[in-house]
Amino acid sequence: MKKFMLIAVSLILVMSLLVGCGAKPSTPASNAPESNAPESSESSGEETYHWRFAHEENNGSIQDVYVKEFVRILEEKSGGRIKVDIYPVGQIGDATQQCELLQNGGLEFGIISPGNTGTIVPENQLFSLHFLFSEDMDKNAEIFKTSKALNEDLSAIYLDKNIKVLAYWTEGTQEWTTSKPANRPELWKGLKMRTMPSPMIVASYEAYGANPTPMPYMEVYSGLQLNMIEGQENPISAIEEMKFCEVQNYLTLGGSSLYVTTTAVNPQFFDSLPADIQQMILDTAEECRDFSFKAQADLNGDALDKIIETTDVEVVHLTEEERALFKEASKSAYEVYKKTVGEKGAAILDKLIEEVAAVEAK
Q: Is residue 312 exposed (0-12), middle (13-18) or buried (19+ Cβ within 10 Å)?
């Protein structure tokens, strides 16, 4: 049934393209997707393009800010030859459906996050492991830019699944909100922690003795309010946006993991483009690397200030001793990952750990 529905969605998109390919819009359409086929510009004789870019969050989120900057740069580089319509989550499906549409060519660009694609690319679940990356965001920026484990090995696996990764980037550190203290691993025993539907996120919290409880994102606030769950993890900006601290007692800042996502494109679409257009896309993705780190720092910093000003939640900073206890407890999840993904995934993780250590040592 799910496969039938995806085929139906794709057919609807295709029909909308056929209906819409008569006139060329001068500005991006707000409702219906347009054709990705090139058109001839009467004024310059050059081909023009109209594409779609979907992301997994609401307007004003980090993903939304990032995508708008990506589109601004790309359209500017093209001198008006490229127009891109932006679709926040829900406009053409949820995060999983958006990924599947990108895979089958119903969508050109997408923000594709590991938490929503663990069954498609199991190896990407290494991003769910705790205490894998640096506490220094400048060093994490270098890792994402230079890592062969990510940009070559992991990206090759994505490509096998018909997803071309243009860049890995982060929305910031994942932080915890809970109804009871959670600053030591022993306090997590039996805690009902909301997680994304990722086996490795579940394993990461089972390592602390918690009771991981997958739940749709839009149901988390009511789940916390009704005590169906006792905690959740997200970047600070998302925590503030969704008002989770209104129904939680503690906000624990430990930076246990990064919320990593990817900027992705359909590979057949990308390969069909002229070399100069391909290079514009690659250059735009590269320029957005630094922007993504600045954007997340600004949005998360502002969000923490708002939380402190507008809620009574107790903000807890992990001490180095407490962080070390969590880091030790998290190691069992690394072994679960290696057993789950096999030798190829285990090799990627080991290489990434070595790369992180090398950057940390500088």
A: exposed
Q: Rounded to whole angstroms, how far apart are CA atoms 233 and 70?
A: 27
Residue 337 and residue 332: Cα distance in Å, rounded? 9
Residue identified by tokens 């209104």 is: 246
Assign residue 218 the CATH number of its domain.
3.40.190.170
Q: Taking the model in full, what pTM does it have?
A: 0.83
Question: What pLDDT, in 10s, does the model give residues 177-224?
Answer: 999 999 999 999 999 999 987 788 899 999 999 999 999 888 999 999
Two tokens, residue 30: 């707000």
Q: 297 lies in which domain range?
A: 37-360
- Rounded to the nearest 10 degrees, the angle between the axes of helix 331-360 and helix 199-206 is 100
Residue 8 lies in a domain: no
The answer as to whether 7 is a domain residue is: no
Poorest-pLDDT segment among 44-48, 60-64, 133-137, 212-216: 44-48
Query: What would the pLDDT profile of 238-276 be if each residue is shown by its tens digit?
Result: 999 999 999 999 999 989 999 999 999 999 999 999 999
What Cα–Cα distance (Å) separates residue 62 from each residue in 172, 256, 257? Answer: 9, 19, 17
DSSP 246-290: GG-SEEEEEEEEEEEEEEEE-HHHHHTS-HHHHHHHHHHHHHHHH
How far is residue 195's CA from residue 118's CA, in Å, rounded to a whole number? 13
**Is residue 1 in some structural domain?**
no
* Number of structural domains in the chain: 1
